[in-house]
Amino acid sequence: MAPVKVTKICCIGAGYVGGPTCAVIALKCPHIQVTIVDLNQARVDAWNSPDFKLPIYEPGLEEVVRQARGRNLFFSTDVDKGILEADLIFVSVNTPTKKSGVGAGFAADLNYVELATRRIATVATSSKIVVEKSTVPCRTAESMRTILEANSRPNCQFQILSNPEFLAEGTAISDLFAPDRVLIGSLQTPEGISACESLKEVYANWVPTDRILTVGLWSSELSKLAANAMLAQRISSVNALSAICEATGANIDEVAHAIGYDSRIGPKFLKASVGFGGSCFQKDILNLVYLSESLHLPEVAAYWRQVVEMNEYQKRRFSKRVVDTLFNTITGKRIAVLGFAFKADTGDTRESAAITLIKDFQSEKAFVNVYDPQVSADQIWLDLQEASPLVPLDNIKKQVSISQSALEACKDAEAVVIATEWKEFKEIDWEAVYAGMNKPAFVFDGRLLVDAEKLRAIGFKVTTIGRP
Ligand code: NAD
Asked: Pathway, per Swiss-Prot/TrEMBL (predicted)?
């Protein structure tokens, strides 16, 4: 079967993945019309804003959107029109962890995937290639196929592909420009292989073909969960070692450097920290745990669950270290938390370690000043309210305030906690910070970001992860 030549793409979901991914496709493929649709009017308005105040912060993204928007890249809330016109549809909707019901706290909430799939089935008047871009449990494509076949017009054929996204927030654009690999999974039927070729042709406009891997549908779905589980496992492994370092006098940076020199291990993703955050690692591992349990593989489930438990332990351990160091009480003390995003170069706060730390400090009756260069005050209040749903927001605001700069956040504080590795925290005027703080002045570096010796020379008492 000759592959369909893709001329119109629709992406359902204009979030952290759908937005950057399809903006880059539009940039690299000027001959393809790309329409990104979303039900969220505010988000679409932001993508379309005349002054390019985009809904997500990502280095290099604005430049991509400036070049392609209005040429062959469009953002819209008209989901049906997007579906009708496209020959290839990405489903890039959110797949959060289920909050209630069966599998709550573990299973993926596939409601958004199902609704988007039903919409495609109902609206489409011609055959389409439907691409899972969202991270989904293994064999979700089977459910999508059943929904599409049961609800579509008789003349419409749907081929389902899996094309998981491996970009990392903060480096999304460079990841998309030069991906380690693009993974496409399809059924090994003539129609499936032909659909796979159509998508491969799109990526081949800028990705070398030896970096475009084509595999079976179920392998592709599982590979995304596996990749995130392996990455998170490295972080939990190094964080587990950091606890041993603190107790023995070993230094986690030296240990990570030494083990990373082994070419079988490699140096990346061996940085100890206060714990991983973000919308994906925890959710995808829990997904794997749930999948393993559903497949009656309890030992496998327990193995992966431990990666998440280690992460929770690392956050708790860090909060406890702050309390212990501040003479076993932080009641009434002011703590500056620098950073609220789950990592640097993003405004995304989902599952950020900062949220857990601030909640712990609140429960110890401390006062907290928060500063983050990219996260809005509205987002911070939303996250803190969600973390403590039973506490009225006015009460949260009595304990937490939001500062406009790092220096302001640290004024009159007893301690500074670095929760996000923003480069600007490395470069702040630490002498001025010290001058404005109560003494003794403490720094707790949750990201191994600052030069501890330099800060000690100023007078700070510095605690870092993975060192005694
Ligand atoms: P997101 O929440 O930022 O974006 C999802 C968007 O989909 C939202 O704007 C929502 O309004 C929209 N949406 C939901 N249902 C819809 C529907 N029926 N019709 C139209 N729009 C709809 O999520 P995200 O971070 O972009 O993640 C999307 C998927 O990609 C998830 O499965 C995630 O696990 C996966 N993923 C995320 C990352 C990451 O770094 N964020 C990386 C790789 C993969």
From this structure: Nucleotide-sugar biosynthesis; UDP-alpha-D-glucuronate biosynthesis; UDP-alpha-D-glucuronate from UDP-alpha-D-glucose: step 1/1
